[in-house]
Design brief:
- The protein has 268 residues and is α/β, with parallel strands linked by helices.
- It has a single domain, classed as Aldolase class I (TIM Barrel), CATH 3.20.20.70.
- It has twelve helices and eight strands.
- An eight-stranded parallel sheet has the order 1-8-7-6-5-4-3-2.
- It is globular.
- Bound molecules: 5-O-phosphono-D-xylulose and cobalt (II) ion.
- It holds the Pfam family Ribul_P_3_epim.
- The active site is at residues 66, 216.
- One of its GO terms (molecular function) is D-ribulose-phosphate 3-epimerase activity.
- One of its GO terms (biological process) is carbohydrate metabolic process.
Length: 268
Amino acid sequence: MASVTESLAANGNGACAAAAPLDALPAGRDRPAALISPSILSADFATLADECKRIVDLGADWLHIDVMDGHFVPNLTLGAPVVACLRKHSKAFFDCHLMVSDPAAWVQDFAKAGADMFTFHLEAVADVADLSASSAHPAVADLAKAVRAAGMQAGVALKPSTPAELVFPYIEAGLLDLVLVLTVNPGFGGQKFMEDAVSKCAPLRAKFPGLHIEVDGGVGPSTIDAVAAAGANVIVAGSAVFGAERPGEVIATLRSSVERAAAVGAVQ
Ligand SMILES: O=C(CO)[C@@H](O)[C@H](O)COP(=O)(O)O
Ligand SMILES: [Co+2]
């Protein structure tokens, strides 16, 4: 297989590179390439740099880094200093998922630390009751712009209970590179996949063919086909990858399911 650097270059997703414009995808492809982003939350934190290298060598495209502040979610993980340390040991694409109450406060620190994707929760920036499918909330739009201005790609994450339509205005305005659809309530690895939540990928894929749609939570060989059929192309898997006897085989299984669904063009 291609080296990570080659894969990232081929996918237009090298460190701090701007995402391909949504209208500039190669003809004949209706969605971006499959990208497998193992969550290092399930890795051995005592040997994190080695774990990152091992999983990239086994075929991971991105590394998913779950940042939890003990406030937005009832768990505490790691912050920008750890990302900066990992950056010294890895050229991989750092896909940072900020489960924090005040994501705007961390933009500069994560940019300096070497984060590539900065995905913040819509629910952390505005009250969901104040959001609409037809107009952008200034705080969300401003944060997405600040993330890009800091040199990172911008993503928005949705809890299982948050409707997909609330993110449409920011995609339509060209402010987002990725939407993360959570299929567990945020806070912990190893939870059960919520099948109902994955259905929100279909309207996103139908309306935005070139968007990175990431699914996160309870994804593994037994749930990937539903995720792929719904139209996701970026797959997060923590316990299924790091807990496996042969993580490389799990990564390959996840990728082939997404590629099969993309070839069929199915969105369910
Ligand atoms: O963001 C989260 C949970 O809040 C995820 O990234 C999980 O860490 C994924 O772990 P698994 O469900 O795949 O074990
Ligand atoms: Co995550």
